[in-house]
Design brief:
5 helices; elongated
Length: 157
């Protein structure tokens, strides 16, 4: 399996060295030279570029470690290769999305792109799809559950 990861994580100033150590401890990077650091007003952006491998477990563990250390993390990392998706961290809470799930999430956040009737139809389609999934039923079921949750959480106008 080949995945390449690119993106940025944002932390508050004053935690940079501690955060870099956590990135190394979670095998996300090998040395501090593997990231580019940019300081903004009260924050620090840690740019990750061409980091290889599946980072799901490492990023989940990173978030747990940051919570224990009192480091707030936000960020978005795109992965591509054998399959595509995004890791999103908001308030040190980790989420992973396939490309389709993330596109749907972005569309739903605008709230203007989906009507209640379309929402109902999509929910019905997801229910029907779950009945005849053949290839990778676990992955398909997980994706459908994520899509369903995104749709249910959308506020109607």
């Amino acid at each position: 399996m080949t995945l390449t990861n690119d993106g940025a994580l944002t932390i508050e100033k004053g935690y940079t060295e501690q955060f870099i150590k956590l990135l190394i401890d979670q095998n996300i990077i090998e040395t501090p030279k593997d990231v580019e650091i940019t300081e903004e007003n009260e924050t620090v952006d840690v740019e990750l570029s061409e980091i290889y491998g599946d980072l799901t477990d490492s990023l989940e563990n990173l978030c747990e470690s940051c919570k224990k250390e009192g480091i707030n993390v936000d960020g978005l990392i795109e992965y591509y290769g054998d399959y595509d998706g995004k890791y999103e961290i908001i308030g040190t809470v980790f989420h992973e999305y396939s490309s389709d799930e993330y596109a749907l999430k972005e569309a739903l956040e605008t709230r203007d792109l989906i009507s209640p009737s379309l929402k109902g139809k999509l929910l019905q389609m997801i229910e029907e799809m779950s009945e005849f999934v053949i290839e990778s039923p676990e992955k398909c079921t997980k994706t459908m559950q994520s899509m369903k949750k995104l749709l249910i959480d959308t506020k109607d106008r």
